[in-house]
Amino acid sequence: MIKVDISNVWGQVSLPDLLALEKEVFDAHMTLSERTGAGNDFLGWLDLPVREPTEEIKRIQAAAEKIRNDSEVCVVVGIGGSYLGPRAAIELLQGPNHNIGKGKGNPQIFFAGNGLSTRHWNELMRLLEGKDFSVIVISKSGTTTEPAIAFRGLKWMLERKYGTDGANSRIYAITDPAKGALRQMADEQGWETFVIPPSAGGRFSVLTPVGLLPIAVAGIDIMAMMNGAADAKEAYDIRSFENPVWLYAACRNLLYRNGKTIELFESYEPGFKMLGGWWQQLFGESEGKDGKGIFPATAEFTADLHSLGQLIQEGERNMFETMVRFDAPEQKYVIGSDVKNLDGLNYLTGKTLDFVDEKAYLGTMAAHVDGGVPVITMDVGELTERKLGELFYFLELSCGVSAYMLGVNPFNQPGVEMYKKNMFQLLGKPGYETK
Ligand code: PA5
After folding, report:
1. Is the domain of 380 the same as that of 259?
2. Could you tell me if 108 and 255 lie in one domain?
3. Is the CB of 280 inside a 6 Å radius of any atom of ligand 1?
4. Cα 355 to middle of ligand 1, angstroms
5. Looking at residue 321, which CATH number applies to its domain?
6. Which domain covers residue 236, as residue numbers?
7. Residue 368: what pLDDT?
8. Which residue, 302, 290, 295, is CA-closest to 279?
9. Which residues contact 396 (CB under 8 A, 6 or more apart)?
10. Would the CB of 80 count as within 6 Å of ligand 1?
11. Same domain for 145 and 81?
Protein backbone atom coordinates (compact mmCIF):
# COMPACT_ATOMS: atom_id res chain seq x y z
CA MET A 1 0.00 0.00 0.00
CA ILE A 2 1.04 3.57 -0.64
CA LYS A 3 1.60 5.20 2.76
CA VAL A 4 0.07 8.63 3.28
CA ASP A 5 1.66 10.40 6.24
CA ILE A 6 -0.15 13.46 7.53
CA SER A 7 1.95 14.02 10.64
CA ASN A 8 3.28 17.24 9.10
CA VAL A 9 -0.08 18.91 8.66
CA TRP A 10 -0.96 19.17 12.34
CA GLY A 11 -0.88 22.77 13.48
CA GLN A 12 -2.70 23.74 10.28
CA VAL A 13 -5.52 21.25 10.80
CA SER A 14 -6.51 19.34 13.92
CA LEU A 15 -7.30 15.68 14.49
CA PRO A 16 -10.89 16.46 15.62
CA ASP A 17 -11.41 18.47 12.42
CA LEU A 18 -10.17 15.54 10.36
CA LEU A 19 -12.28 13.01 12.23
CA ALA A 20 -15.31 15.25 11.82
CA LEU A 21 -14.99 14.66 8.07
CA GLU A 22 -15.48 10.91 8.41
CA LYS A 23 -19.10 10.91 7.24
CA GLU A 24 -18.33 13.28 4.39
CA VAL A 25 -15.49 11.19 3.05
CA PHE A 26 -17.50 8.00 3.54
CA ASP A 27 -20.39 9.50 1.55
CA ALA A 28 -18.06 10.66 -1.22
CA HIS A 29 -16.45 7.21 -1.45
CA MET A 30 -19.89 5.54 -1.52
CA THR A 31 -21.11 7.96 -4.19
CA LEU A 32 -18.15 6.94 -6.31
CA SER A 33 -18.24 3.19 -5.72
CA GLU A 34 -22.04 2.93 -5.92
CA ARG A 35 -21.92 5.13 -9.02
CA THR A 36 -24.72 7.38 -7.87
CA GLY A 37 -23.11 10.82 -8.25
CA ALA A 38 -22.80 13.45 -10.95
CA GLY A 39 -20.85 12.23 -13.96
CA ASN A 40 -21.51 8.57 -13.14
CA ASP A 41 -21.56 7.66 -16.82
CA PHE A 42 -17.79 8.32 -16.83
CA LEU A 43 -16.77 5.71 -14.28
CA GLY A 44 -15.52 3.04 -16.67
CA TRP A 45 -11.96 3.65 -15.39
CA LEU A 46 -12.92 2.06 -12.06
CA ASP A 47 -13.07 -1.36 -13.75
CA LEU A 48 -10.03 -1.14 -16.02
CA PRO A 49 -7.49 -3.04 -13.89
CA VAL A 50 -7.14 -6.72 -14.84
CA ARG A 51 -4.89 -9.52 -13.58
CA GLU A 52 -4.64 -11.40 -16.90
CA PRO A 53 -4.23 -9.89 -20.38
CA THR A 54 -7.50 -9.36 -22.23
CA GLU A 55 -7.71 -9.86 -26.00
CA GLU A 56 -7.29 -6.07 -26.37
CA ILE A 57 -4.14 -6.10 -24.23
CA LYS A 58 -2.71 -9.01 -26.25
CA ARG A 59 -3.32 -6.97 -29.43
CA ILE A 60 -1.60 -4.00 -27.80
CA GLN A 61 1.40 -6.15 -26.93
CA ALA A 62 1.58 -7.52 -30.47
CA ALA A 63 1.31 -4.05 -32.03
CA ALA A 64 4.00 -2.75 -29.66
CA GLU A 65 6.28 -5.63 -30.66
CA LYS A 66 5.76 -4.87 -34.35
CA ILE A 67 6.59 -1.18 -33.81
CA ARG A 68 9.66 -2.12 -31.78
CA ASN A 69 10.87 -4.36 -34.60
CA ASP A 70 10.17 -2.18 -37.63
CA SER A 71 10.73 1.36 -36.31
CA GLU A 72 13.64 3.40 -35.04
CA VAL A 73 11.21 6.07 -33.87
CA CYS A 74 7.61 5.97 -32.71
CA VAL A 75 5.75 9.29 -32.77
CA VAL A 76 2.84 9.49 -30.35
CA VAL A 77 0.32 12.16 -31.37
CA GLY A 78 -2.17 13.46 -28.80
CA ILE A 79 -2.87 16.19 -26.27
CA GLY A 80 -4.20 16.47 -22.71
CA GLY A 81 -5.76 13.24 -21.54
CA SER A 82 -4.68 11.64 -24.81
CA TYR A 83 -1.01 12.37 -24.10
CA LEU A 84 0.02 13.02 -20.51
CA GLY A 85 -0.43 9.51 -19.06
CA PRO A 86 1.92 7.60 -21.39
CA ARG A 87 4.56 10.31 -21.26
CA ALA A 88 4.36 10.40 -17.46
CA ALA A 89 4.83 6.63 -17.18
CA ILE A 90 7.72 6.44 -19.64
CA GLU A 91 9.63 9.37 -18.12
CA LEU A 92 9.12 8.23 -14.55
CA LEU A 93 10.23 4.64 -15.21
CA GLN A 94 12.94 5.27 -17.80
CA GLY A 95 14.01 8.84 -17.01
CA PRO A 96 13.65 12.09 -18.97
CA ASN A 97 16.59 11.04 -21.23
CA HIS A 98 15.00 7.69 -22.10
CA ASN A 99 15.51 8.18 -25.86
CA ILE A 100 19.28 8.35 -25.74
CA GLY A 101 20.89 5.25 -27.26
CA LYS A 102 17.59 3.82 -28.54
CA GLY A 103 16.88 2.66 -32.10
CA LYS A 104 15.38 -0.29 -33.97
CA GLY A 105 14.42 -3.05 -31.51
CA ASN A 106 13.81 -0.39 -28.87
CA PRO A 107 12.58 2.72 -30.69
CA GLN A 108 12.88 6.30 -29.55
CA ILE A 109 9.53 7.79 -28.56
CA PHE A 110 8.67 11.36 -29.42
CA PHE A 111 5.43 13.15 -28.63
CA ALA A 112 3.73 15.46 -31.13
CA GLY A 113 0.43 17.30 -31.47
CA ASN A 114 0.51 18.53 -27.87
CA GLY A 115 0.96 22.16 -28.87
CA LEU A 116 1.25 24.47 -31.85
CA SER A 117 4.94 25.34 -31.78
CA THR A 118 6.57 25.47 -35.20
CA ARG A 119 10.01 25.14 -33.57
CA HIS A 120 8.93 21.88 -31.92
CA TRP A 121 7.57 20.64 -35.26
CA ASN A 122 10.79 21.57 -37.10
CA GLU A 123 12.82 19.74 -34.48
CA LEU A 124 10.66 16.64 -34.93
CA MET A 125 11.20 16.80 -38.69
CA ARG A 126 14.96 16.88 -38.13
CA LEU A 127 14.75 13.95 -35.70
CA LEU A 128 12.77 11.86 -38.18
CA GLU A 129 15.09 12.47 -41.11
CA GLY A 130 16.22 9.14 -42.60
CA LYS A 131 14.58 7.16 -39.80
CA ASP A 132 12.07 4.32 -40.04
CA PHE A 133 9.10 5.42 -38.01
CA SER A 134 5.52 4.60 -37.00
CA VAL A 135 2.77 6.84 -35.68
CA ILE A 136 0.35 6.24 -32.84
CA VAL A 137 -2.43 8.81 -33.10
CA ILE A 138 -4.63 9.23 -30.03
CA SER A 139 -7.80 11.30 -30.08
CA LYS A 140 -11.22 10.47 -28.76
CA SER A 141 -12.92 13.05 -30.94
CA GLY A 142 -10.44 12.95 -33.79
CA THR A 143 -10.95 16.65 -34.38
CA THR A 144 -8.79 18.26 -31.70
CA THR A 145 -6.84 20.88 -33.63
CA GLU A 146 -3.31 20.33 -32.31
CA PRO A 147 -3.07 16.54 -32.86
CA ALA A 148 -5.09 16.74 -36.08
CA ILE A 149 -2.57 19.18 -37.62
CA ALA A 150 0.41 17.08 -36.50
CA PHE A 151 -1.16 13.85 -37.69
CA ARG A 152 -2.01 15.25 -41.11
CA GLY A 153 1.68 16.13 -41.62
CA LEU A 154 3.01 12.82 -40.28
CA LYS A 155 0.56 10.79 -42.36
CA TRP A 156 1.71 12.63 -45.46
CA MET A 157 5.35 11.90 -44.57
CA LEU A 158 4.62 8.21 -44.04
CA GLU A 159 2.78 7.98 -47.37
CA ARG A 160 5.65 9.68 -49.18
CA LYS A 161 8.21 7.37 -47.58
CA TYR A 162 6.40 4.03 -47.62
CA GLY A 163 3.52 4.43 -50.11
CA THR A 164 -0.13 4.22 -49.08
CA ASP A 165 -0.13 0.57 -48.01
CA GLY A 166 3.18 0.90 -46.19
CA ALA A 167 1.91 3.99 -44.39
CA ASN A 168 -1.34 2.29 -43.46
CA SER A 169 0.61 -0.52 -41.77
CA ARG A 170 2.55 2.01 -39.69
CA ILE A 171 -0.40 4.01 -38.34
CA TYR A 172 -2.14 2.96 -35.12
CA ALA A 173 -5.27 4.90 -34.15
CA ILE A 174 -6.62 5.01 -30.61
CA THR A 175 -10.06 6.54 -30.62
CA ASP A 176 -13.78 6.19 -29.95
CA PRO A 177 -15.22 2.76 -30.83
CA ALA A 178 -17.89 4.12 -33.17
CA LYS A 179 -17.82 7.82 -33.86
CA GLY A 180 -15.60 10.74 -34.75
CA ALA A 181 -13.31 11.77 -37.57
CA LEU A 182 -10.39 9.57 -36.56
CA ARG A 183 -12.59 6.48 -36.34
CA GLN A 184 -13.91 7.20 -39.82
CA MET A 185 -10.42 7.73 -41.27
CA ALA A 186 -9.07 4.58 -39.58
CA ASP A 187 -11.94 2.44 -40.84
CA GLU A 188 -11.57 3.79 -44.38
CA GLN A 189 -7.79 3.29 -44.46
CA GLY A 190 -7.71 -0.01 -42.56
CA TRP A 191 -5.38 1.18 -39.78
CA GLU A 192 -5.05 -0.97 -36.70
CA THR A 193 -7.27 0.62 -34.06
CA PHE A 194 -7.71 0.46 -30.31
CA VAL A 195 -10.61 1.77 -28.33
CA ILE A 196 -10.85 4.59 -25.80
CA PRO A 197 -13.83 3.46 -23.73
CA PRO A 198 -16.48 6.21 -23.94
CA SER A 199 -16.95 5.77 -20.18
CA ALA A 200 -13.38 6.84 -19.34
CA GLY A 201 -12.57 10.54 -19.71
CA GLY A 202 -9.16 11.55 -21.08
CA ARG A 203 -7.59 12.24 -17.69
CA PHE A 204 -8.70 8.79 -16.47
CA SER A 205 -7.47 6.93 -19.56
CA VAL A 206 -3.87 5.99 -18.77
CA LEU A 207 -4.82 2.33 -18.16
CA THR A 208 -6.64 2.12 -21.52
CA PRO A 209 -4.82 1.74 -24.88
CA VAL A 210 -4.13 5.52 -24.65
CA GLY A 211 -1.45 4.79 -22.09
CA LEU A 212 -0.80 1.11 -22.64
CA LEU A 213 0.28 1.08 -26.30
CA PRO A 214 2.96 3.81 -26.11
CA ILE A 215 4.11 2.47 -22.74
CA ALA A 216 4.46 -1.04 -24.20
CA VAL A 217 6.39 0.37 -27.19
CA ALA A 218 8.85 1.80 -24.64
CA GLY A 219 9.45 -1.78 -23.48
CA ILE A 220 7.63 -1.38 -20.19
CA ASP A 221 5.72 -4.38 -18.81
CA ILE A 222 2.12 -3.20 -19.07
CA MET A 223 0.72 -6.29 -17.34
CA ALA A 224 2.85 -5.52 -14.29
CA MET A 225 1.29 -2.03 -14.34
CA MET A 226 -2.19 -3.48 -14.67
CA ASN A 227 -1.54 -5.84 -11.78
CA GLY A 228 -0.44 -2.88 -9.68
CA ALA A 229 -3.68 -1.12 -10.55
CA ALA A 230 -5.59 -4.30 -9.64
CA ASP A 231 -3.73 -4.34 -6.29
CA ALA A 232 -4.92 -0.76 -5.75
CA LYS A 233 -8.53 -1.56 -6.67
CA GLU A 234 -8.60 -4.20 -3.94
CA ALA A 235 -6.45 -2.50 -1.32
CA TYR A 236 -8.10 0.93 -1.35
CA ASP A 237 -11.65 -0.27 -0.93
CA ILE A 238 -11.52 0.15 2.87
CA ARG A 239 -14.14 2.48 4.38
CA SER A 240 -12.14 4.14 7.15
CA PHE A 241 -9.19 6.43 7.73
CA GLU A 242 -7.03 3.29 7.45
CA ASN A 243 -7.47 3.93 3.75
CA PRO A 244 -4.74 6.28 2.44
CA VAL A 245 -7.22 7.48 -0.21
CA TRP A 246 -9.40 8.79 2.60
CA LEU A 247 -6.47 10.46 4.35
CA TYR A 248 -5.32 12.22 1.19
CA ALA A 249 -8.79 13.28 0.02
CA ALA A 250 -9.94 14.45 3.46
CA CYS A 251 -6.72 16.19 4.34
CA ARG A 252 -6.47 18.23 1.13
CA ASN A 253 -10.13 19.29 1.46
CA LEU A 254 -9.57 20.35 5.04
CA LEU A 255 -6.47 22.33 4.13
CA TYR A 256 -8.40 23.99 1.29
CA ARG A 257 -11.18 24.99 3.67
CA ASN A 258 -8.47 26.51 5.90
CA GLY A 259 -7.24 28.77 3.11
CA LYS A 260 -4.62 26.56 1.47
CA THR A 261 -5.65 27.10 -2.11
CA ILE A 262 -2.48 25.80 -3.80
CA GLU A 263 -1.19 22.23 -3.69
CA LEU A 264 2.42 21.68 -4.69
CA PHE A 265 2.80 18.07 -5.87
CA GLU A 266 6.48 17.26 -5.81
CA SER A 267 9.23 14.69 -5.76
CA TYR A 268 13.00 14.45 -5.70
CA GLU A 269 13.01 12.54 -9.03
CA PRO A 270 13.58 14.50 -12.30
CA GLY A 271 11.61 11.77 -14.13
CA PHE A 272 8.56 12.78 -12.07
CA LYS A 273 7.90 16.04 -13.93
CA MET A 274 5.43 14.61 -16.43
CA LEU A 275 3.67 12.57 -13.76
CA GLY A 276 3.19 15.92 -12.09
CA GLY A 277 1.68 17.17 -15.36
CA TRP A 278 -0.68 14.19 -15.52
CA TRP A 279 -1.71 14.74 -11.87
CA GLN A 280 -2.23 18.44 -12.61
CA GLN A 281 -4.78 17.65 -15.31
CA LEU A 282 -6.40 14.93 -13.20
CA PHE A 283 -7.07 17.15 -10.22
CA GLY A 284 -7.25 20.53 -11.96
CA GLU A 285 -9.81 19.50 -14.57
CA SER A 286 -11.79 17.40 -12.10
CA GLU A 287 -12.04 19.97 -9.31
CA GLY A 288 -11.63 23.37 -10.93
CA LYS A 289 -15.24 24.38 -11.54
CA ASP A 290 -18.19 26.21 -9.98
CA GLY A 291 -15.75 28.80 -8.59
CA LYS A 292 -13.96 26.12 -6.56
CA GLY A 293 -10.75 24.12 -6.74
CA ILE A 294 -7.25 23.80 -5.35
CA PHE A 295 -4.68 25.09 -7.84
CA PRO A 296 -2.50 22.08 -8.70
CA ALA A 297 1.15 23.10 -9.02
CA THR A 298 4.19 20.84 -9.34
CA ALA A 299 7.84 21.06 -8.40
CA GLU A 300 11.01 19.03 -8.65
CA PHE A 301 13.31 19.12 -5.65
CA THR A 302 16.05 19.90 -5.01
CA ALA A 303 16.23 21.82 -8.33
CA ASP A 304 13.20 24.00 -7.60
CA LEU A 305 14.32 24.76 -4.07
CA HIS A 306 16.79 27.05 -5.84
CA SER A 307 13.97 28.88 -7.64
CA LEU A 308 10.72 28.40 -5.72
CA GLY A 309 12.27 27.79 -2.31
CA GLN A 310 12.05 31.40 -1.15
CA LEU A 311 8.36 31.69 -2.04
CA ILE A 312 7.51 28.37 -0.40
CA GLN A 313 9.39 29.31 2.77
CA GLU A 314 8.23 32.90 3.22
CA GLY A 315 5.62 33.85 0.61
CA GLU A 316 1.85 34.05 1.04
CA ARG A 317 0.74 31.23 3.36
CA ASN A 318 -1.79 29.75 0.92
CA MET A 319 0.04 26.56 0.00
CA PHE A 320 0.50 22.97 1.07
CA GLU A 321 2.81 20.34 -0.32
CA THR A 322 2.26 16.73 -1.28
CA MET A 323 5.64 15.02 -1.38
CA VAL A 324 5.86 11.75 -3.32
CA ARG A 325 8.73 9.52 -2.18
CA PHE A 326 10.20 6.43 -3.83
CA ASP A 327 12.72 3.97 -2.35
CA ALA A 328 16.32 4.70 -3.29
CA PRO A 329 17.61 2.54 -6.15
CA GLU A 330 19.85 -0.45 -5.44
CA GLN A 331 22.73 0.94 -7.46
CA LYS A 332 24.43 3.52 -5.26
CA TYR A 333 26.73 6.40 -6.00
CA VAL A 334 29.34 6.80 -3.29
CA ILE A 335 30.93 10.22 -2.86
CA GLY A 336 34.71 10.04 -3.18
CA SER A 337 37.43 11.93 -1.32
CA ASP A 338 39.62 14.67 -2.72
CA VAL A 339 43.11 15.45 -1.44
CA LYS A 340 42.74 19.22 -1.67
CA ASN A 341 39.11 19.29 -0.53
CA LEU A 342 38.68 22.79 -1.96
CA ASP A 343 34.91 22.20 -2.26
CA GLY A 344 34.80 21.22 1.41
CA LEU A 345 32.95 18.02 0.67
CA ASN A 346 35.29 15.54 2.35
CA TYR A 347 32.94 15.34 5.33
CA LEU A 348 30.67 13.37 2.98
CA THR A 349 33.36 10.97 1.75
CA GLY A 350 32.01 7.42 1.72
CA LYS A 351 28.40 8.58 2.00
CA THR A 352 25.95 7.74 -0.79
CA LEU A 353 24.08 10.28 -2.89
CA ASP A 354 20.75 8.95 -1.61
CA PHE A 355 21.95 9.55 1.98
CA VAL A 356 22.40 13.23 1.07
CA ASP A 357 19.02 13.22 -0.73
CA GLU A 358 17.31 11.83 2.38
CA LYS A 359 18.80 14.56 4.58
CA ALA A 360 17.80 17.22 2.04
CA TYR A 361 14.26 15.86 2.11
CA LEU A 362 14.05 15.81 5.90
CA GLY A 363 15.67 19.22 6.29
CA THR A 364 13.46 20.83 3.65
CA MET A 365 10.30 19.37 5.10
CA ALA A 366 11.15 20.61 8.61
CA ALA A 367 11.91 24.10 7.24
CA HIS A 368 8.66 24.31 5.26
CA VAL A 369 6.53 22.98 8.12
CA ASP A 370 8.17 25.54 10.46
CA GLY A 371 7.40 28.20 7.86
CA GLY A 372 3.69 27.34 7.90
CA VAL A 373 3.50 25.05 4.86
CA PRO A 374 1.92 21.71 5.76
CA VAL A 375 3.35 18.66 4.00
CA ILE A 376 1.46 15.46 3.14
CA THR A 377 3.88 12.63 2.35
CA MET A 378 3.05 9.81 -0.07
CA ASP A 379 5.50 6.95 0.24
CA VAL A 380 5.13 4.79 -2.87
CA GLY A 381 7.94 2.30 -2.16
CA GLU A 382 9.96 0.83 -5.03
CA LEU A 383 9.79 2.61 -8.36
CA THR A 384 8.52 -0.31 -10.47
CA GLU A 385 5.90 -0.85 -13.18
CA ARG A 386 3.62 -2.51 -10.67
CA LYS A 387 3.90 0.32 -8.16
CA LEU A 388 3.29 2.89 -10.86
CA GLY A 389 0.05 1.13 -11.85
CA GLU A 390 -0.96 1.24 -8.20
CA LEU A 391 -0.08 4.94 -7.97
CA PHE A 392 -2.14 5.83 -11.06
CA TYR A 393 -5.23 4.09 -9.72
CA PHE A 394 -4.70 5.41 -6.19
CA LEU A 395 -4.56 9.00 -7.47
CA GLU A 396 -7.60 8.56 -9.72
CA LEU A 397 -9.61 7.17 -6.83
CA SER A 398 -8.41 9.93 -4.49
CA CYS A 399 -9.41 12.50 -7.12
CA GLY A 400 -12.94 11.12 -7.44
CA VAL A 401 -13.45 11.04 -3.67
CA SER A 402 -11.87 14.46 -3.15
CA ALA A 403 -13.93 16.14 -5.89
CA TYR A 404 -17.18 14.71 -4.56
CA MET A 405 -16.21 16.07 -1.13
CA LEU A 406 -15.70 19.46 -2.78
CA GLY A 407 -19.22 19.22 -4.18
CA VAL A 408 -18.39 19.25 -7.89
CA ASN A 409 -18.86 16.82 -10.78
CA PRO A 410 -15.36 15.30 -11.12
CA PHE A 411 -15.94 13.95 -14.60
CA ASN A 412 -16.89 16.88 -16.82
CA GLN A 413 -14.76 19.76 -18.17
CA PRO A 414 -17.13 22.39 -19.58
CA GLY A 415 -14.51 25.15 -19.27
CA VAL A 416 -12.10 23.57 -21.75
CA GLU A 417 -14.37 24.48 -24.68
CA MET A 418 -14.15 28.27 -24.29
CA TYR A 419 -10.65 28.76 -25.73
CA LYS A 420 -11.46 26.38 -28.58
CA LYS A 421 -14.53 28.40 -29.59
CA ASN A 422 -12.51 31.64 -29.63
CA MET A 423 -9.65 30.02 -31.56
CA PHE A 424 -12.02 28.52 -34.13
CA GLN A 425 -13.70 31.89 -34.61
CA LEU A 426 -10.32 33.57 -35.17
CA LEU A 427 -9.25 30.81 -37.56
CA GLY A 428 -12.49 31.08 -39.52
CA LYS A 429 -13.56 27.47 -38.96
CA PRO A 430 -16.91 26.85 -40.68
CA GLY A 431 -19.73 26.93 -38.14
CA TYR A 432 -17.83 29.25 -35.77
CA GLU A 433 -18.28 32.56 -37.60
CA THR A 434 -18.51 35.67 -35.35
CA LYS A 435 -22.12 36.43 -34.66
O1 PA5 B 1 -9.39 15.23 -20.72
C2 PA5 B 1 -9.82 15.73 -21.73
O3 PA5 B 1 -11.00 15.65 -22.07
C4 PA5 B 1 -8.89 16.49 -22.65
O5 PA5 B 1 -7.63 16.67 -22.11
C6 PA5 B 1 -8.78 15.70 -23.95
O7 PA5 B 1 -8.20 14.45 -23.66
C8 PA5 B 1 -7.95 16.45 -24.96
O9 PA5 B 1 -8.55 17.68 -25.24
C10 PA5 B 1 -7.82 15.64 -26.22
O11 PA5 B 1 -9.08 15.35 -26.75
P12 PA5 B 1 -9.24 14.26 -27.86
O13 PA5 B 1 -8.83 12.96 -27.27
O14 PA5 B 1 -10.68 14.28 -28.25
O15 PA5 B 1 -8.34 14.66 -28.99
Report:
1. yes
2. no
3. no
4. 41
5. 3.40.50.10490
6. 3-36+226-406
7. 98
8. 295
9. 45, 204, 282
10. yes
11. yes
